[in-house]
Write a structure and sequence with these properties.
The complex is a heterotrimer of chains A (101), B (163) and C (666). Chain A is mainly alpha-helical. Helix content of chain A is 77%, strand content 0%. Chain C is built from 28 helices and two strands. In chain C, strand 1 and strand 2 form a beta hairpin. In chain C, helix 4 packs antiparallel against helix 5 and helix 8 runs parallel beside helix 14. Chain C is elongated and about 150 Å long. The chains are: A mainly alpha (101), B mainly alpha (163), C mainly alpha (666).
Chain lengths: 101, 163, 666
């Protein structure tokens, strides 16, 4: 397959994920959309690695680290969500607006 | 043959992603997320990144998705009715997301990438391991520290008062 | 002694300084200090005269001592002495009369609260007059000229509580000032055109013909202006009668014998300027314009003043007008070129006029009135006063062999080339004799008209009568130095140009004696025998009488034509000035107020406006801006997405490529 196909795929996935963050109200749903975006990035990285420098593994290493960091971030994020739920009994992202003017 | 597989995986990814962002039942969203992640692993395999595919499944599906499901179960009223899942920005968000896609594709297609002709290297796992321990050992260690921090942070954030 | 003549003026100056600074509280000491100083000056003057007479040289004695005060190339100011026979004579006159007056004042001013001050002023005056007499240049003489005027003012207004006295002082000073203005202009012209003030240098230049014609005439006439003021000639004579408000010793000293003589002295001193070509004059008797001016003014003055004296009733006023008239005589003589005559008459007149004044003072002191209509028959009670007064009156009338006879004849004689002047002079002589004896008869003889005053009248104390006797003697003998038959008389001592030879003119003597006797006779008939009624005369000549009694209305004329307009102008200028100044000040205040109000407004509105404006704008902007912070993540991400799209698009567009190209990046 061509590089462009993979890149297009990653772009679509990214956009879907972005749409999900913008639109969803459930905080966990937002986090899930975020995971989608991470995956889109990973696809990009690996695709570039495969088509541009097939001898090397830089893209894959990068992707590994992305996965790890995403995992850590999901952890912390979900901990926060649980905390919010514990205090406010909801996890509606639209109602978490304490930083409102 | 390769094309068919690709399109299959692509279809799976996209449709499950769409499901993730639009389904009312959050649990269903989580399940579709799992499906999406598996499909991405498949794409990895197609791109000759086997180790990465394994890592993807192990970590993403095995840990993160499970985590998400646990969180869902802890925080949602499974038995009750589903609240409205989307906010007022669906239209503009969709519109802008489409524009994003098109602009990205447009810009990517207008970019010249220096493609190489060589074949991908075999035995990626071994090579990756070597690289992690030699060239990329610093990020490797740092990321482990990061994981530790995340772990401790999450525990502290989520623990009950008084404990 | 002659070289030390400059000490003479310094003696009374010393007395003045001592009295003012030291001995003021001690009256007796102050007065005796003054008297001793003037006596010493008198003695020194006599020595000077004697030495000068003894001087045996081809030319008459002349001495000039000077030191320069300012000496630039173009300009020289010096203080100096010029001592010659005429100056020596003047020294004698001034010191003698001063001595008599000082002693007299011991008695007359006794009990006055400002006794010491009087003597201080007298001493200052004597110093000024002596300095004037000895000065060798115009600038120096002008200094003393002004000083004399000042002391005159101070002494006339000595009893300044009396308004009439202080007014009289002012009048004297201002009137003489007008004359002094002419003198000052003459000084300036001298400085500009001649280049020197020194008498001798100027006379030399005149002789050499450097100054001539119009310039010389102008300077001479301007100098004469000063003399007109000081010597109370027409038209500046108005101050002298009013000056009688001062104490009588003052009148005797200043306004009879000395200060008023300063004008005559000046004209005599500077006669070269009036008659530059003396040789021609002696030959032909031709007079210059300036000399004619002097002569005519002298003549008019003497006639006018004598006529006014005919009808007045204030004893001192009569004597004052008499002084004016006699000064006119002297001026007339000088104008005719009669240097010897004019100076001789000044010499004799000083003695008998001061005697007349002191005598009048004695009378006033006794009866406490100046009005002769309230007197009468005082001869019985005041013998010495009466006798000395009569002697002086005879002298002034020109009766042989008293001093006045000789000097008056000289005066009339000096006009021999101009018969008109002679006739008028004789008429004046007649009038003089008449009014003098009218005065005598009314004061000393007849029935006392005010019994009360008469009863209280007493002869004056010795301090007052001794000077009277002293001066009476002088009135008789002083004139004998000028007897025409004398070989080395006055005329060979004091002269101008060439020694003057006086021809005895028997005809003139006879005529003048006749005139004088007829004047006395008429007065006798009218006021002693009363065979001709004075009142009837007055009625018959009522218009003339009124005119004379009101002094030809000259004072009123001056008042209306000069004084009132000047006052009006001054008032107008003052009010104009005041309004402008007030206006300016108020305007300034108003403008300042306005400006400050405007500034206040600007300050408040603009600065407040700016500051508040800043605040308001910031507030409004923030009010708008904060709405961006919805607190909702989704909104923030929307913006991010928007930006992302923008960047993606830009990265592909040529814009960025072009930008990179410009920056040199491929």
């Amino acid at each position: 397959m061509e590089l462009m196909h993979y890149l297009t795929l990653a772009a679509i996935l990214f956009s879907i994920g972005f749409y999900g963050i913008l639109t969803r109200r459930n905080a966990i749903a937002i986090l899930m959309s975020l995971e989608l975006m991470f995956n889109a990035a990973n696809i990009n990285l690996v695709a570039f690695n495969r088509f541009t420098t097939p001898d090397g593994f830089t893209g894959q290493i990068f992707a590994i680290f992305v996965v790890v960091v995403a995992a850590a971030e999901a952890t912390v994020g979900l901990a926060i969500v649980i905390l919010i739920y514990r205090n406010w009994r909801h996890i509606d992202a639209d109602r978490v607006n304490l930083l409102k003017w | 043959m390769e094309q068919v597989v690709f399109y299959l995986f692509a279809f799976l990814i996209i449709s499950s992603a769409l499901a993730v962002v639009s389904l009312k039942n959050i649990f269903h969203c989580a399940l579709f997320l799992v499906l999406c992640l598996f499909s991405v692993a498949g794409i990895f395999v197609m791109l000759h990144a086997e180790f990465l595919a394994a890592v993807q499944i192990l970590i993403y599906v095995g840990a993160v998705a499970i985590l998400i499901i646990f969180a869902i179960m802890l925080t949602s009223k499974l038995a009750g009715r589903d609240p409205i899942m989307t906010n007022e920005m669906t239209f503009i968000g969709a519109f802008l997301a489409l524009i994003l896609v098109f602009s990205l594709v447009y810009s990517l297609s207008n970019t010249f990438f220096r493609l190489a002709d060589t074949e991908p290297a075999p035995q990626s796992t071994l090579e990756l391991g070597k690289l992690l321990m030699t060239e990329f050992v610093l990020p490797f260690e740092l990321v482990s520290v990061l994981l530790l921090a995340a772990l401790i942070g999450a525990i502290i954030i989520a623990r009950r008062e008084g404990n | 002694m002659l070289e030390k003549a400059f000490i003479i003026p310094l003696l009374p100056l010393f007395a003045f300084v001592a009295i003012v600074f030291f001995t003021h509280p001690r009256e007796k000491l102050s007065s005796w200090l003054a008297i001793i100083s003037i006596a010493a000056a008198w003695v020194m003057s006599i020595v000077v005269l004697v030495e000068m007479l003894a001087y045996d040289g081809a030319q008459p004695y002349r001495l000039e001592q000077a030191f320069d005060v300012i000496n630039f190339a173009s300009f020289r100011l010096e203080f100096g002495i010029w001592l010659d026979p005429w100056a020596a004579i003047m020294l004698i006159v001034v010191t003698t009369v001063s001595l008599a007056v000082y002693v007299y004042s011991l008695g007359y001013m006794h009990g006055d609260p400002r006794f010491s001050r009087f003597f201080a002023y007298l001493a200052l005056f004597s110093f000024s007059m002596l300095g004037l007499v000895l000065a060798n240049n115009f600038f120096f003489i002008f200094i003393f000229w002004e000083l004399v005027g000042l002391t005159s003012y101070l002494l006339i207004g000595f009893w300044y509580e009396k308004k009439s006295a202080s007014d009289a002082g002012k009048k004297a000073f201002i009137t003489t000032r007008i004359g002094d203005l002419g003198f000052l202009v003459a000084l300036m012209m001298m400085a500009m055109f001649v280049g020197t003030f020194n008498f001798q240098e100027i006379f030399a230049k005149v002789a050499a013909g450097h100054i001539s014609g119009g310039l010389l005439t102008a300077i001479a006439i301007l100098i004469f202006c000063g003399a007109v003021g000081k010597s109370a000639q027409f038209p500046l004579h108005v101050w002298l009668p009013d000056a009688m408000e001062g104490p009588t010793p003052v009148s005797a000293l200043i306004h009879a014998a000395t200060m008023v003589a300063a004008g005559v002295y000046l004209v005599a001193r500077t006669l070269t300027l009036f008659l530059p070509d003396w040789h021609t004059f002696v030959e032909t008797g031709a007079l210059t314009t300036s000399a004619w001016t002097v002569a005519w003014i002298g003549l008019v003055t003497s006639l006018m003043a004598a006529s006014i004296a005919l009808v007045h009733n204030d004893i001192k006023r009569i004597l004052a007008y008499s002084t004016v008239s006699q000064l006119g005589y002297m001026m007339m003589a000088l104008g005719m070129g009669g240097f010897t005559a004019g100076t001789f008459h000044l010499f004799t007149h000083a003695f008998f006029k001061s005697l007349l004044f002191l005598g009048a003072g004695s009378v006033i002191h006794a009866v406490h009135t100046n009005d002769i209509r309230e007197m009468g028959g005082l001869s019985g009670k005041m013998k010495i006063t009466t006798m000395t007064f009569i002697i002086a009156a005879l002298s002034i009338s020109g009766i042989f062999p008293l001093s006045g006879f000789w000097s008056k004849d000289e005066i009339i004689g000096s006009a021999y080339r101009h018969p008109f002047f002679m006739v008028v002079a004789l008429i004046v002589a007649f009038m003089t004799a008449f009014y003098m004896f009218r005065l005598c008869f009314l004061t000393f003889f007849g029935i006392p008209r005010d019994r009360g005053k008469y009863d209280r009248a007493l002869e004056s104390p010795r301090s007052m009568t001794l000077p009277l006797i002293f001066l009476a003697v002088l009135s008789v003998v002083a004139g004998w130095v000028g007897i025409p038959w004398l070989k080395h008389g006055y005329a060979s001592f004091v002269y101008h140009g060439y020694p003057h030879h006086v021809e005895p003119n028997i005809l003139l003597m006879a005529v003048s004696t006749a005139v004088a006797l007829s004047g006395i006779g008429l007065a006798y008939l009218m006021y002693y025998k009363k065979s001709i009624s004075a009142e009837a005369m007055g009625e018959r000549f009522k218009p003339i009488y009124t005119l004379l009694y009101n002094k030809y209305y000259i004072d009123e004329f001056y008042d209306h034509v000069i004084i009132k307009p000047t006052h009006a102008l001054a008032r107008f200028l003052w009010s104009f000035d005041d309004r402008i100044i007030d206006g300016l000040v108020n305007l300034h205040a108003k403008v300042t107020l306005l400006l400050s109000t405007v500034k206040y407004w600007i300050d408040v509105y603009i600065i407040d406006g700016i500051v508040n404006g800043l605040g308001i704008v910031t507030d409004a902007a923030s009010g708008v801006m904060r709405l961006l912070q919805t607190g909702r993540l989704a909104h923030y991400l929307l913006v991010v997405l928007f930006g992302l799209i923008l960047i993606v698009l830009l990265s592909t567009s040529n814009l960025l490529n072009w930008a990179f190209l410009e920056a040199g990046i491929k």
